[in-house]
Amino acid sequence: MSGRGEQKLFEFICDLHLHTCLSPCGSLGASPRGQMLAAAARGIDMVAICDHNTADNVDACRRAAVDTGMVVLAGMEVCSAEEVHSLAIMPDVEAALSLQEVIWANLPGHNDPDVFGMQVVADHEDNVLGFCDRLLIGATQLGLPAVAREVRDRGGLLIAAHVDREGYGVIAQLGFVPRDTYDALEVSARGDVGMYRDEAERLGVPLLRNSDAHDPDDVGRVTTRIRMAHRTFDELKMALRGEAGREVIQD
Amino acid sequence: MNLRELVDKLNLQVVCGEDKLDVDVPGVYVSDMLSDVMANAAPGALWITLQVHQNIIAVATLRELAAIVCVRGRQPEADTIEKAMAEGVCLLTTDKTTFEFAGLLWELGLRP
Lengths: 251, 112
Description:
By secondary structure, chain A is α/β, with parallel strands linked by helices. Chain A has helices at 32-41, 58-65, 93-105, 113-116, 144-153, 170-174, 197-203, 233-241; strands at 10-18, 46-49, 71-79, 85-90, 120-122, 128-131, 157-160, 184-187, 207-209, 224-228, 247-248.
């Protein structure tokens, strides 16, 4: 009898951590259109938009990518109270915006554009729709367990962002990676993936490499190959869990 | 107390911002959580921390802090120094631990 395991699987090139001009410290050139065209030009098959503590540019990215054939997942880089960054990749834009609501309800402070940039909300054609006044660079009042709960309750995946980095990396902030929290660990473009293999194995999760690009030039500077039947959120979930032949290819 | 005086008295290493030392230090803030410093440090304060990554510079700029003192001999990263020089932020280091250094500042009469 044939089952899911017999479906034809393909290797897709993924960059699951992209920012836009909405993120603090983002380049104005990193408009939704700018970032999506850069990714498509580099042959990336699937991206996730993960702006700091917001998902307001995700839909614009989706629209901007429509003619490229590239798949765009809805995400957010959440900063927990412990100042740990985690990537929340959500099933769809609605789930991401629902997460945004609870994040914003727990995110104090106002942005200072001179220090952190203008935090531009844009459409898919580079039109400026507004500026986010919230302190997106800030930490939410939600601890990491609460963040994980809010993401899971909305069907999302949680990835420890740039675990190799001192700034806002879970290992630097907490001294360890908490169990039963993350679906994957991300190593940044500058990190040494080999250093984290044992830890990932111990936790039973894969390692991802993503660009964390705040600028079109950095899009796809590192990527991850993921084996899936299709480029969908559900397939990504299976790949992170190593189910039915889907997997994250570890170099 | 004048920052230059403090640097001399406590043997601090000046990583960059030599030209920023002629200021009075009205107060001190100790924290390793950037969000905490952003929310609570007073303008002009001296910030004591063990964080050495580049994000500390934006925080110092935001709160107009007098300088950042990195403790326990921790050296600011190359990115951090580059950003500090670009933004005009004074970076200092000490071998002392946070507790010890804060204690010494207190003994010199500095207060929050």
